[in-house]
Write a structure and sequence with these properties.
The chain has 430 residues and is an alpha/beta fold. 29% of the residues lie in helices and 24% in strands. It has helices spanning 23-38, 49-62, 78-85, 97-105, 122-131, 141-153, 189-200, 222-242, 270-276, 293-296, 329-333, 421-425, and strands spanning 9-12, 15-18, 21-22, 44-48, 67-71, 90-94, 113-115, 135-138, 158-163, 205-211, 248-250, 286-289, 300-312, 315-320, 339-341, 348-354, 363-371, 378-381, 403-406, 412-416. β6 (90-94), α4 and β7 (113-115) form a beta-alpha-beta unit. It starts with 8 loop residues before the first strand and ends in a 5-residue tail after the last helix. The structure holds ligand LLP. The site of ligand LLP has 20 residues, from α10 and α11.
């Protein structure tokens, strides 16, 4: 069955439509709102609820029977989290106390929150125990022992899951692979057996699941199948050792998004995956996924304007008002994002699209052929909803830029105000 395909980015005549919305009207409207309400002018993030709802629906329909723990780290705006929390099959996968508080505040009940991360602090573990979240995903023996100690002090049984390292190779950027043995994540085979021995006779720990996450931006099905088989065999062993069934197996996140797909909605073969893992786990086991990017990347654009143009041999340089402190993916991972002029002109040129930050790395695209640009032109940097605003920094003392949401009824709302200079400086002595 096909659930797609809406054109994500398409020119009609010479103007750009994003999921059917004319950006030539929407961006100036958003800019006017920011100017009137916050005296702000500059780049901003823009999200669409309609796309978000569709992405959630694709998962719900593509992986029937499975549950989803949305990876909050990929996009953590409270307004968007609230929309996700309204979907009964979605929980939250958090990696810090801050994300845990965000998830709770946006309406995820504690029993639908799992907490991952290799270096949880004492305070974070205590918060998770106090809130009685669904489970802590444990990444080391030392952490398991610490959780047991805190749980004993609280006279409770802490719900935990073991994050295993399946030693599976995936074809992705070297910075975002996680499931190989040499990686910092998860328990090794030896750790796993030691963990089982600890869990077997500790009344303060309740093992509820096993988890693995093998990386991000994955398109192939096979690594998930290999991971599923690995986890199913460890599940057998665990249930035999503990003498009781586990509640769930989580196969992590990582579903890839094709950043070059413009005219269609980027997909991952969810139905293929559903079919490939069928029958691997016993029927009493819930199967979880932790998608982040698949949901959040397509829902957002970074809207920016051309400040100035310079000519160089064989190309032009367009200096825009967004920078690497806003969206760092192109610089950090050599990631490709579509950069689309909102109004298209007749002839094309070769451009470097750069930000104002004082280092050469601040380049969104090198030698990109675009229709001719002029000063003040609007550009949409596409598929920027995931690992965009949440990875922003104040580098070069640039305040965080605002986030806006276009809801399903066509209303535009500022869902994160622009950070003021005063707010940015207020933590410092001086
Ligand atoms: N579960 C765990 C345990 C994770 O570590 C991650 C992502 C996810 C789920 C969600 O993965 P996703 O479905 O979004 O691929 N900043 C990088 C991506 C880092 C991913 C880290 N872990 C980027 O911008 O490409």
């Amino acid at each position: 069955m096909l659930f797609y395909f809406y054109p994500m980015f398409r020119y009609q005549g010479d103007t750009l439509f994003w999921n059917g919305v004319p950006l030539v009207e929407l961006l100036p409207r958003a800019a006017a709102l920011l100017r009137e309400e916050y005296s702000y002018s500059g780049a901003f993030w823009l999200y669409q609820q309609a796309i978000l709802e569709r992405r959630l629906q694709l998962l719900e329909q593509g992986l029937p029977g499975c549950r989803f723990y949305y990876s909050v780290k990929s996009q953590s705006n409270l307004a968007l989290l609230r929309l996700i929390a309204a979907h009964p099959r979605f929980g939250a996968d958090v990696v810090s106390g801050g994300e845990l508080v965000r998830a709770l505040r946006s309406g995820f009940p504690p029993e639908k929150i799992v907490f991952a991360g290799v270096g949880k602090t004492e305070e974070e573990i205590q918060l998770a125990l106090a809130q009685r979240i669904r489970s802590l995903h444990v990444e080391s023996i030392a952490e398991l022992e610490e959780i047991a100690k805190f749980a004993k002090e609280r006279k409770m049984a802490a719900a935990v899951s073991l994050r295993l390292n399946p030693d599976v190779e995936v074809d992705t950027h070297r910075h975002i692979t996680t499931g190989k043995e040499e990686n910092k994540f998860g328990l090794s085979e030896q750790d796993f057996h030691e963990a089982l021995a600890i869990l077997k006779d500790n009344a303060y720990l309740e093992l509820v699941g096993l988890q693995a996450h093998i990386g991000s931006q994955i398109f192939a099905i096979e690594p998930y199948v290999a991971t599923a088989r690995f986890l199913a065999s460890r599940q057998n062993e665990t249930e035999a050792t503990l003498g009781r069934p586990l509640q769930y197996i989580s196969l992590g996140g990582g579903f890839g998004v094709d950043y070059r797909a413009l005219d269609a909605e980027p997909g991952f073969d969810l139905a293929g995956l559903a079919q490939a893992i069928q029958g691997i786990f016993p029927t009493h086991t819930e199967i979880h996924f932790e998608p982040g990017r698949f949901i959040s990347a397509p829902i957002g654009i970074l809207a920016t304007r051309v400040r100035h143009l310079k000519t160089r041999t064989g190309k032009a340089i367009a200096i825009v008002d967004a920078a690497m402190n806003d969206l760092i993916r192109p610089m950090l991972y050599e990631a490709y994002h579509p950069i689309l002029p909102v109004v298209r002109r007749n002839h094309e040129r070769n451009y470097d699209i750069v930000g104002p930050v004082c280092e050469s790395t601040d380049t969104f695209a090198q030698s990109r052929v675009l229709s001719e640009l002029r000063e003040k032109d609007w550009l949409a940097i596409g598929y920027a909803g995931a690992y965009g605003s949440c990875m922003s920094s104040n580098f070069n003392s640039r305040p965080l830029i605002p986030e806006l949401l276009l809801d399903s009824l066509g209303r535009l709302q500022v869902v994160r105000r622009p950070q003021t200079l005063e707010h940015m400086l207020s933590l410092e002595l001086g």
